[in-house]
């Protein structure tokens, strides 16, 4: 087992944000279970090729209310962990920006799937706020185009059919290799390459804790598996970690 620096890495998935009113995707009540056709709205090929898909996608974003969501006790617990002085890095599969809204420094949050709080033109790559694009939809533009070049606007997220940003993935890989504790929270650990991060951490000597309602492929490799609701389990876990590592 390699010597490790006392760094805590926390990987968060959709489960940490469900108490903020943002539904997960793959759980028993997840979006893909309730409406399998919705996956097309976040798949890059159909999105770029079909104006009707984009119109439905904009309506989904408008009606989801994710931009108005507020951090919950799980997000705030990680802020408490960071403010305790323990070295922390958060790797998130979420695109909701709630870790930063809760108070985590942006430099300590690695958004593996991008952010839904910004849009980007697929042609000229200019970036703008999602709020502004949604306001245009509310005002009657069903498929708002880039104001700079007229190109297709898309969220700055990693859509199905796209690769993760190699720089962000490399940074996450380095965190997984450097940490001595890896905590996976609210994630099914089924989507690669992100799902490989806990294994990288374990193979390089880290302890693994999983906090998730459903079983994951890595439960047997974990030193501890917590099935309690995240908004209560994570604050309790954070308090324990602070006590143990003080």
UniProtKB/TrEMBL annotation:
<dbReference type="InterPro" id="IPR029035">
    <property type="entry name" value="DHS-like_NAD/FAD-binding_dom"/>
</dbReference>
<keyword id="KW-0862">Zinc</keyword>
<dbReference type="Pfam" id="PF02146">
    <property type="entry name" value="SIR2"/>
</dbReference>
<feature type="binding site">
    <location>
        <position position="146"/>
    </location>
    <ligand>
        <name>Zn(2+)</name>
    </ligand>
</feature>
<keyword id="KW-0520">NAD</keyword>
<dbReference type="InterPro" id="IPR003000">
    <property type="entry name" value="Sirtuin"/>
</dbReference>
<dbReference type="GO" id="GO:0046872">
    <property type="term" value="F:metal ion binding"/>
</dbReference>
<feature type="active site" description="Proton acceptor">
    <location>
        <position position="113"/>
    </location>
</feature>
<feature type="binding site">
    <location>
        <position position="124"/>
    </location>
    <ligand>
        <name>Zn(2+)</name>
    </ligand>
</feature>
<dbReference type="GO" id="GO:0017136">
    <property type="term" value="F:histone deacetylase activity, NAD-dependent"/>
</dbReference>
<dbReference type="GO" id="GO:0070403">
    <property type="term" value="F:NAD+ binding"/>
</dbReference>
<keyword id="KW-0479">Metal-binding</keyword>
<feature type="binding site">
    <location>
        <position position="149"/>
    </location>
    <ligand>
        <name>Zn(2+)</name>
    </ligand>
</feature>
<protein>
    <recommendedName>
        <fullName>protein acetyllysine N-acetyltransferase</fullName>
        <ecNumber>2.3.1.286</ecNumber>
    </recommendedName>
</protein>
<dbReference type="InterPro" id="IPR050134">
    <property type="entry name" value="NAD-dep_sirtuin_deacylases"/>
</dbReference>
<dbReference type="InterPro" id="IPR026591">
    <property type="entry name" value="Sirtuin_cat_small_dom_sf"/>
</dbReference>
<feature type="domain" description="Deacetylase sirtuin-type">
    <location>
        <begin position="1"/>
        <end position="244"/>
    </location>
</feature>
<feature type="binding site">
    <location>
        <position position="121"/>
    </location>
    <ligand>
        <name>Zn(2+)</name>
    </ligand>
</feature>
<dbReference type="InterPro" id="IPR026590">
    <property type="entry name" value="Ssirtuin_cat_dom"/>
</dbReference>
<keyword id="KW-0808">Transferase</keyword>
